[in-house]
Amino acid sequence: MMNQLYSVKEEFPGSSSGGDEPPPLTPQPMEGLHDIGPPPFLTKTYEMVDDSTIDHVVSWNRGGQSFVVWDPRAFSTTLLSRFFKHNNFSIFVRQLNTYYWTICGFPN
Q1: 10 Å Cβ neighbour count for 75?
Q2: Across residues 31-49, what is the average pLDDT?
Q3: Any idea where the domains of the chain sit in the sequence?
Q4: Which ranges in the chain belong to alpha helices (H)?
Q5: Crossing angle of helices 89-104 and 40-50, rounded to 10°
Q6: What are phi and psi of 31, to 5 degrees?
Q7: Across the chain, what does the average pLDDT equal?
Q8: E strands along 5-64, which residues?
Q9: Contact by Cβ (8 Å): 19, 11
Q10: What are phi and psi of 68, to 5 degrees?
Q11: Cβ atoms of residues 58 and 68 within 8 Å
Q12: Which DSSP state fits 107?
């Protein structure tokens, strides 16, 4: 069977073939609909570290460039399960390292 190309004429309600009226507006996507934000893992980690009520467990370092887990046991048993679907500290560290190396690149 041979493929045949057919020309298609779009017609819109209320339009005339005379071309007097402007074509209808083309639908546009909502602004920001396809914007990509930070991954949920990074957002949740930021929210957790930025919560000053748990600074005794995890907090930003002095310069605010990194964070310190002061109490790994409380971090694992209390915080991880509140923000993530697990409470395994080593899985959290592995995922954090994955994002670090993805953003910064592997060492030469």
Answers
A1: 18
A2: 82
A3: 38-71
A4: 40-50, 72-74, 81-83, 89-104
A5: 110
A6: -65, 130
A7: 79
A8: 58-60
A9: no
A10: -125, 135
A11: yes
A12: -
Q: What is the DSSP letter of 63?
A: T
Q: What secondary structure does DSSP assign to 5-48, as a single string? A: --------TT--TT--SPPPPPP-PPTTTT-----HHHHHHHHH
* pLDDT score recorded for residue 56: 97
Q: Taking a C-beta distance cutoff of 8 angstroms, is the pair 60, 48 a contact? A: no
Dist CA 71 CA 55 (whole Å): 10
Would you state the structure tokens that stand for residue 64, as one six-digit string? 């605010």
Q: Which of 27-31, 42-46, 84-88 has the lowest mean pLDDT?
A: 27-31
pLDDT of residue 84 exceeding 80, the answer is yes
Place of tokens 């609909």: 33
Confidence of residue 106 (pLDDT cuts 50, 70, 90): low
d(CA 71, CA 2): 71
